[in-house]
Amino acid sequence: MLRQKLAQLRQRLLAAIGLGILATAIILVADYLFNDDPAVRIPADRPATRLLAIPPLLEPTDEDGVARYHLDLHAASHNFLPDRATPTFAYNQTSILGPTLRLRQGDRIAIDVTNHLDEDTTTHWHGADLPAAADGGAHSLIHPGQTWTAEFDVIQEAATLWYHPHVKYHTAEQVYRGAAGLMIIDDDNPSARSLPSTYGVDDIPLILQDKDFTKTSELDFTLTNYGKGYYYPTLTANGTIDPYLSVPAGLVRLRLLNGSQARLYHFSLDAGKTMTKIASEGGYLNRPLELERLTLSPGDRAEIVVDLSDVDRLVLLDDSFGRVLELRADPTLVAVTTPLPDRLNDIERIDPSEVDRSREFVFDSVGKGWGINGKQMEMARIDDTIRFGDTERWTLQSVSGWHVFHVHQTQFQVLSRNGQPPEPADRGWEDTIFFKNRNKIEILARFDTYANPEIPYMLHCHILDHEDTGMMSQFEIVKDL
Fold first, then answer.
1. CA-to-CA distance for 448 and 2, rounded, in angstroms?
2. Cβ 444 vs Cβ 413: under 8 Å
3. pLDDT of residue 9
4. Taking the mean position of all CA atoms in its chain, how far away is CA 252?
5. How far is the C-alpha of 468 from the C-alpha of 170, rounded, in Å?
6. Could you give the CA distance from residue 362 to residue 378 in angstroms, rounded to a whole number?
7. Other Cβ atoms closer than 10 A to 110
8. Pairing label, strands 440-446, 391-398
9. Taking a C-beta distance cutoff of 8 angstroms, is the pair 474, 458 a contact?
10. Residues 79, 80, 86, CA angle at the centre, nearest 5°?
11. Strand pairing of 108-115 and 84-91?
12. Residues near 323 by Cβ (< 8 Å), separated by ≥ 6?
């Protein structure tokens, strides 16, 4: 085992030297050999070196009242560092990741996705409540050269969602190579009008992914059946290493997405500052929540607001990587300085007495991979059938390993974690939740928007190593059992 780890370490050190970060080699050695985390840490006390890339907004065309978007997934190349082109996947004309889609509640949407890769793909709208035929799961394959169209009505409240491939066995690699992007839903919530909302100025998308590079600057992909999934040593934010951004000297909103394969992020701010969480995955919290720390697991999103009204510089930190993003206050930009509203939402808590059926999902190793309830994913097998209109209580339990439960189509509420009520930060709408080492979580969800007896939805672990080695199952929603 030590020989194997040393060989892997040698390769990573060569890549680190090629990326110009030799000074961090000793830290990399210690982290990799003793902590199982090879993160290259960036000191927070020196200026960041590269301007944060902001994914462009994708504008739709209006076709008889339908907002139509076009996404083209293709092989690309991206300069993570100047003059060193790395092969990537990307949507549209970007060099990595994809444009941000901005939708509005009540709109009718059509999204055409064309596959220009030389392999099959799909595009899944993670966190979206939409028909099974538009979900973009493993059954909605887009073969090379083909176009697939998702059509749906936007029925959700304001939220930050994302899109990414969902191909059986190959989700992790396609997302790792850059196939991902944000999808923002807006609505007419009057309480949110005073929030920072100018995209790319004081409303900042932040897609976080860890990467590794070969000595020739190619992305070095690894899939493992290890219980925590595979961690890479280099942090990127919107494809940028060591980023900074000039922002207004006031309130700034960060839309955080953990787009990593397996890594958890533990965020804080420098200078003793606190952040304010305003939204979870499915929309606004009832009230702004002041936090000193925020943890995001893979697939998870959170919206936070930070305040630069009394500082020239503010740094977002992660426990493993050190600095994530340096924000520089620019007094020439128009700033939001009004206090955050006291109330943002009015979430109706699901009453357990409303539950029509309970189910249990046990996450554990199966053979050389992972499975749910002792089974690995089979495309031809429906694991659960849910009656349209029902409310269900699901118990999630980890026998071994770290896991991130994600369910398609619906948002859920956390009822309990290990017998205790959820923390305030976990009392919003969610579509992913992290648990490990014999944790037991109860969630409540309603299945009252769409039914389809022919096309299933997925539930799975969003540690993508686990998903791609079997930890996924299928459920269908039908009007008559």
1. 53
2. yes
3. 52
4. 20
5. 6
6. 17
7. 17
8. antiparallel
9. yes
10. 60
11. unpaired
12. 42, 43, 44, 48, 242, 315, 316, 317
How much is the pLDDT for 6? 47
Q: Which residues contact 110 (CB under 8 A, 6 or more apart)?
A: 63, 66, 67, 68, 69, 149, 150, 151
Closest listed residue to residue 201, CA positions, set 296, 45, 332, 364 = 332
Write phi, then psi, for 175 (nearest 5 degrees).
-65, -45
Low-confidence residues of the chain: pLDDT under 50: 1-7, 10, 14-35
- Please give the model's pTM, rounded to 2 decimal places: 0.92
- Predicted local confidence at residue 310, as pLDDT: 94
What residue type is 404 in one-letter code? V
Q: What pLDDT, on a 0 to 100 scale, did the predictor assign at position 437?
A: 85
Measure the CA–CA gap between 328 and 312, rounded to whole angstroms.
6
Q: What is the pLDDT of residue 345?
A: 97
Instruction: Output the six-digit token pair for 120.
Output: 């099959």
As to burial, measured by CB atoms within 10 angstroms (0-12 exposed, 13-18 middle, 19+ buried), residue 456 is: buried
Distances, alpha carbon 422 to alpha carbons 30, 158, 418, 428, 434, in Å: 36, 23, 10, 10, 13
At position 124, the amino acid (one-letter code) is H
